[in-house]
Description:
The protein has 157 residues and is an all-alpha fold. It is built from six helices and no strands.
Amino acid sequence: MTDAGETSSEISARLRRMARLSAVQALYQMEVSSSDAKTVVEEFRTYRFGRDDEPGDYIEANEVFFEDLVTGIASAQDDVDSRIAVVLRKDWKLSRLDAVVRAILRAGGYELINRPDIPAPVVINEYVNVAHAFFENSEPGFVNASLDVLAKQVRET
């Protein structure tokens, strides 16, 4: 639902923010249910994203950006995972991380690697905020540090 006082850039940022949160949820769902990206995107469009004329609560998100994230991450997952693995401590494997943290790192990693149109500080901040939506302990700091190192490796600073 839109606030009357929001500017178009604020609305766009909010819709992208919700797309990122939804993409992390979709990645988690794909991992635990072994669903493919196309199936999960369609499920979100049908059951989680709504329209203004529909009754009830729904998520308002930038659906095009959401689909780009989910399908892009799914197709680039091996590359994204290998780059994330490089930034983890030597004694940690991506598979040892909590599934939600893994989804957050994959989404943030994908944006850092494949969406140079979005500034790295914006990507990092957005996914730290997503981490805060799920965790209260050290996970947001871990996400921040990991994505910061990855950004330095994949983007010119």
